[in-house]
Design a protein that fits this description.
It contains 23 helices and three strands. By secondary structure, it is mainly α. It folds into three domains: 7-106; 115-233, no CATH class; 247-513, no CATH class.
Amino acid sequence: MKKLFFSSFLIISATFLTGQTASQQLSHIITTQENFQGDKYKHSAGQWPVISKSTIKKEQNHLRIQIANLKNLDKTALSESEQINQELLLLILEDELYKLEYGHYLMPLNAEGGFLTGMVYRTQSLRLNTEAERTTYLKKLKAVPAYLQQQTDLLKRGLKENKVVPKIIVENCIGYVEDYLDTPIADLFLAKPLATFKEEDEEGLSILTSQVIPAFQAFKTFLENEYLPNTRAAVGVSNNKDGKAYYEQRVRYFTTLDMTPEEVFETGQKEVARIRAEMEAIIKEVGFEGTYAEFLDFLRTDEQFYAKTGPELLAQAAWFSKKAEEILPRYFGKLPRLPFTVNPVPDAIAPNYTSGRYSSGSAKDQRAGQYWVNTHNLNSRPLYVLPALTLHEAVPGHHLQISLAQELEDVPAFRTSVYISAFGEGWALYTEYLGKEAGIYKTPYQDFGRLTYEMWRACRLVVDPGMHYMGWSREEALDFMTKNTALSIHEVTTEIDRYIGWPGQAVSYKIGELKIRALRKQMEEELGDKFDIRVFHDLVLANGSIPLSSLERVIKMNLLK
């Protein structure tokens, strides 16, 4: 692989494409990008990510040239698949460049831990099979203090430049570090890979005790004594330097559309009103005598709607998973080869984590996909939302879509692993709606659970720009979500905090779902009896995770020809 270290090489690279066909130019750009990413991975293999002025400058130079070359391509000379390659890579690289130029890396914390949780993800499935792998991992453990110091230095720069994480997010992250410090060394997430090779690795545990734990303690002290007192209570990112422009860009990236925060907010209000009417109809159907707020309180407090134990909740999730698999042949012509399993959210991240999540599997690594269900705080995990959650996180949602993307052939490697939130989350939310026509929801309460999940995503279109663009307080957002959804108070709180720490991402779900539903409706109307739902779904998923504008073109070109 060629190392792109010198600006002179980059300048040459920018003009190297002259005389090639558009397809050849695109292939060269993709290869250059893959080599660049490969060099980054190779350089940091077995270690933690390095963020420095030199690495940032190098990447900025690289990205500017790649973006210019992509924009100069003659798209009319590209095939359909190549057009997707160009559009998708341009979206990704422009976003990466913007984040570097803005200083996104100065805010490495979010409500789910940010880089702290990233450390869990980087080690949770790691197995040490050889002495060489163990030696590399011990080196990684020894590098933890430097990694935490790097994050400390970035946060300090953020304070100086007024690009900061609000107090509520910092408080949540302090809680994460406290949990790490309170965990017995042998049970710490960083110790678990050691046990896959050696039952009691005294050297590794000694490194954790003498170097890693003191480093976490120092980071906690910094957050408590220096960062927290100097950051702000206001939750919106617009309070940061150039924060409004930053949020406008996040909305465009996460929707993949040229939408403004105001348009997102207005769409959300319309969706909230529509869904509220459907929820009111179900309340009437079940014969509940009381107000909407009283019905929500009934759902949040009645024991019949909650599992008594974690295994009971997992068993229900597994049951709904199998019922969801039952409908797949009716709605899809192509299914993935990779299976999935049901597991609890890891203890290290469960307290501030969402209700469920999908963790990708890998046939190459002999690892099934995982549908995570949060068994922490069971009285905040209602059973009536479990069918919708299962459809979303497992099948036909994330597991189906992501696994099919991993199996794509004759596409560049990045196409099999990239994840565009508007597409992936939009698809998963669409499958919750699909579950209704497929007969998954057997009781009015389960259907109400589906609606409360849809309402939850509609509310995001209101509270996310509300907080980050229009000056809403955390309390206003909590109140809006509490009044309009049947989510537990704990779930409402963790969700709002998640949005505070991840500006813009929350709006991707509903915008993506609305686009897919609109495309389906248009195809049904224009094709009439010729419309085949299995063909439509297969076509939506045929290219992996792609921008919504690309999806619209693919659907119309292939179904309306």
